[in-house]
């Protein structure tokens, strides 16, 4: 595995310290054209600024419309560096983001109550970067509070790699169900792919959807209180690919 696919999630601290701040609505893993890991943070709400993102304790901000559309969304994607030890944005290690005012809803040209920030893992795998600057902290904030069922923190589910053949989760995609509540869809790829749930209480295997395609996926939903990700009413606290 290339080092730029191995940046640890903990290299970026997601805070909720500022006025109007709340847990990040989405933290989605992906891959760039060079095959390096990326992370896209999404903040939702009225006047979304990653909703505003403050990057690296004030060194930068992404604001709506960062993508040309004023849509109440600010987006920033970071990529795992080559060494797998940092998330990068444009070559800069990203260690912090905050809802103070860099990425705002509308930065992408659409006011849609969403702010997004994408960072990229650097070549050494030592930092997540945005435009070459290391990102170490991010924070999501909004003027109008969002529904509790859209505020579940990402760290309510622990992703482990303890078992034989275990590896980082290939996908962790945030979405929304028909009731407007946050969802997360985890994806595990590979031969005999499966997702272990709650320390072996359950397992999702390739073929569970009727198709053998070297992929297992599992979707959980934020509960009404915003304090747990659930599947069939059962809190999900641990997953392993």
Automatic annotation (TrEMBL):
Q: Which InterPro entries match?
A: C6_domain
Question: Boundaries of each C6 domain copy?
Answer: 4-99, 149-241
Q: Which Pfam families match?
A: C6
What is the protein's given name? C6 domain-containing protein
Q: Which organism is it from?
A: Pristionchus mayeri
């Amino acid at each position: 595995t290339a080092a730029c696919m191995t940046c640890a999630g903990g290299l970026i601290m997601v805070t909720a310290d500022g006025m109007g701040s709340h847990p990040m609505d989405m933290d989605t893993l992906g891959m760039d054209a060079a095959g390096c890991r990326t992370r896209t943070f999404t903040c939702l709400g009225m006047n979304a600024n990653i909703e505003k993102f403050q990057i690296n304790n004030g060194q930068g901000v992404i604001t709506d419309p960062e993508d040309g559309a004023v849509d109440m969304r600010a987006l920033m994607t970071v990529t795992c560096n080559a060494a797998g030890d940092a998330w990068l944005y444009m070559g800069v290690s990203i260690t912090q983001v905050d809802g103070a005012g860099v990425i705002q809803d509308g930065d992408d040209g659409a006011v849609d109550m969403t702010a997004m920030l994408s960072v990229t893992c650097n070549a050494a795998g030592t930092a997540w970067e945005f435009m070459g600057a290391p990102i170490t902290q991010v924070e999501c904030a909004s003027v109008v509070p969002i529904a509790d069922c859209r505020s579940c923190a990402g760290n309510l589910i622990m992703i482990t790699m303890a078992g034989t053949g275990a590896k980082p989760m290939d996908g962790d995609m945030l979405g929304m169900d028909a009731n407007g509540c946050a969802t997360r869809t985890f994806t595990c790829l590979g031969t005999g792919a499966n997702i272990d749930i709650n320390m072996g209480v359950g397992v999702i295997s390739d073929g569970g959807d009727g198709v053998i395609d070297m992929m297992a996926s599992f979707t959980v939903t934020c509960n009404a209180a915003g304090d747990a990700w659930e599947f069939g009413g059962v809190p999900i606290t641990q997953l392993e690919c």
